[in-house]
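ugh ok fine here u go
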Amino acid sequence: MKKELPPFEYPIDPNHYCICGVDEAGRGPLMGNVVAACVILDRNNPIEGLNDSKKLSEKKRDLLEPVIKEKALAYGIGICTPQEIDSLNILNASLEAMKRAYLNMNHNCHLMLVDGNKTPKDLPIKMEAVVKGDARVAEIAAASILAKVERDRQMYELDRKYPEYEFAKHKGYPTARHLELLKTLPILDFYRKSYGPIKKILMSSSDHTVL
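structure:
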């Protein structure tokens, strides 16, 4: 049986201090931006149904996104491009996207709670990493939903532009179908060329052009 993590205890009183939650979406895909979101919830205006975005259906996430944006005290979105991911590596790019999400929120906080075990650098705010935070902390759960919906939206936009890649289906993840398609399609500029499968394709075949 999986051992359940204990309920999260806020280190400062969320009723008296401003606390934001941060999470990202898109570390695993072969292409596209990594997207982060930062959210401050209104304790007097709770949102029902918040949970780790991966545990929610796409339909449920799409329904919750406008509710979070309407009821939150503030939120921000930050991205890092495939080129930045190739330059920084995906961990550092994810942390940079989180930093940008906080700055884009344009609202000072006393504490940032970050999903995972690392925190962004160079921010004038106390930060705490929370393992499995998207399932334990409402602010992080809300951020995970905003980040996931925004990244999926970007995938649907690319799908309309490049339907032959089927981005709407695999969302850029290295599924068998995605890898099969890449055997005959060009490697577009928004693929992450430092990622193993893409690097291997580019090195093994002169037929693969980069568009």
